[in-house]
Amino acid sequence: MRSFTALFLLPLASAFAPTQLNSHAIQNPLQMAAFEMEVDMPPSGSNMQANLKFDPILDVPSEIIEVRYAVPFGLNVEPQKNLAVCTKDGEGGEKVGDVLRYTSQWTIGLAAMFGGGVSWGCSLFNVMSAKSWEQVVEALVSNVDSRTDEVVLLFERPLEAEN
């Protein structure tokens, strides 16, 4: 088992698996609305956007925090209870306990605008759809300076209780 911490892969004792439909992990007793947002896609200045609509996974009111880092970047996230959880506050704004929901990911695909040639393309990887922790790590480490100047990370964070 590997963890993603500051671009180093460390062994862990437990396996990462996609979240199962169970009452603790994804049921939403408050019936919160889905998150809807536009995300500017890497690299910076590409003028590409992704429109997202997805349900919260936390069982408390939450928000989405968008974090961008120049590459190469460091990140302290590891699998905990079938979620990719931030284990150390980061300079980009992520906090301990935040759940990584999406990351930019670079994959090889056909580029229709260039006559069907093969090229690298950026998409958003849904961390909750990962079949293994290795898939999460592969998506994160695909953000390298030969392809992009930045990585985009979307975290779900519980809202702070009002006093």
Helix-strand pattern: EEEEEEEEEHE
Q: Number of helical segments?
A: 1
Q: Provide the structure class.
A: mainly beta
- What is the number of E strands? 10
Hey, roughly how much beta strand do the residues contain?
35-45%
Biggest sheet details: 4 strands, antiparallel
Q: Unreliable segments (pLDDT under 50, ≥5 consecutive)?
A: 1-31
User: pLDDT average, as an integer?
Assistant: 81
Rounded radius of gyration (Å):
16 Å
Strand order of the largest sheet: 2-1-6-7
Task: Name the helicity range.
Answer: under 10%
**Head-to-tail CA distance between termini:** 41 Å
Overall geometry: globular
How would you briefly describe this protein structure?
By secondary structure, this protein is mainly β.
Task: Output the keywords.
163 residues; mainly beta; 1 helix; globular; disordered N terminus
Secondary-structure blueprint:
Blueprint: E1 2-5, E2 8-11, E3 35-40, E4 49-54, E5 62-70, E6 76-80, E7 83-86, E8 99-111, E9 117-126, H1 133-141, E10 150-158
Antiparallel strand pairs: 1-2, 1-6, 3-4, 5-10, 6-7, 8-9, 8-10
Could you characterize what this model shows?
The chain is mostly beta strands. It has one helix and ten strands; from the N terminus they run E-E-E-E-E-E-E-E-E-H-E. It has one helix at 133-141; strands at 2-5, 8-11, 35-40, 49-54, 62-70, 76-80, 83-86, 99-111, 117-126, 150-158. The longest helix is centred in the last third of the chain and has 9 residues, at 133-141.
